[in-house]
Amino acid sequence: MTDLNLMAIFARVVEAGSFAEAARRMATSRSAISKAVAKLEKELGARLLNRTTRYLSLTEIGASVSEHCTRMLSEAEQARKLVDSLTTAPRGLLRVSASVAFGTLHVAPALAEFLPRHPELKIDLSITDRWVNLAEEGYDVAIHVTGDPQPNLVARPLAPVRRKLCATPDYFRRKGIPQTPADLVAHNCLDYTRSGEPGRWRFTGPEGEIAVPVNGPLHVDDDEALSQAVLGGLGVGLLPTFIIGQALQNGRLQAVLSEYIPVERHVYAMYLPTRHLPSKVRVFIDFMVAHIGDEPYWDR
To answer: What Cα–Cα distance (Å) separates residue 39 from each residue in 46, 47, 59?
Structure first.
């Protein structure tokens, strides 16, 4: 097998344009570089360089070999960077954007466990429902709820977004428990105006989509505010379990018609494509995946 070090030296010579410059860059002698190239030519059985006292030029074979040797050097450098990214302690500033409800309820509280593990890391957390431009605005990670991740980003799923149609047990005692989506016409349906059509809720049944006209005393554009109204007994709301999971677990809310509500969205951690993910991004996303769990803790 041809000595790979000889190929690396040949690639450096081509890059430098002369034996002397290659020797300077590699901190060795011109004669050592010349001998290495001559040895490579002997091993390959072909002339790679045309030499004169003033310049070097590649032969036809040398040009082809040079492409492979340069690629080999590039891959070796990438391998070194990969090792660095996996072994170097995360440090510096990590800029994270997270949607308002999920970021407030699940990202910010988790940082109390995450940051002490990485004392050389600081986080700049932006809580916003606006889709930030990671490349232009300098964010490392964006955490959003969506059914359609942006195609120019790497999207790692953190959790499914399950929605529940729910109200307080006292409300259902007073109004009755709906047995089918059509029964909702007799209920106070509290409408989240940033999802779907105002005044119409859509479900999925055995025969396909079911659209139900609903009416109620409250229309609100914030799902955390909606959850508070539902918890207050005002009516029925359709809410994600990452907001109301604890209230369902402790019995403050009761879910109905769950078989009619499919999972349509996920929470994703999104970042720009790169051959080697920076360690600060990798450890943060890995932590969030483990922290949430295969079955999200709010759904257990």
So the answer is: 11, 11, 16
* Predicted TM-score of the model (pTM): 0.72
Residue found by looking up tokens 């030296």 in the block: 9
Residue 1 has pLDDT above 60, yes or no: no
pLDDT tens track for 223-256 = 999 999 999 999 999 999 999 999 999 999 999 9
What angle, rounded to 10 degrees, do the helices at 19-26 and 30-44 form?
110
Sole residue written with tokens 């996996």: 86
Count Cβ atoms within 10 A of the Cβ of residue 262 and give its class: 0-12 exposed, 13-18 middle, 19 or more buried: exposed
Tell me which amino acid residue 236 is: V
Q: How confident is the model at residue 276 (pLDDT cuts 50, 70, 90)?
A: confident
The residues pairing with 145 across neighbouring beta strands, listed in sequence order, are 267
Q: CA nearest 291: which of 107, 84, 29? A: 107
pLDDT of residue 74: 86
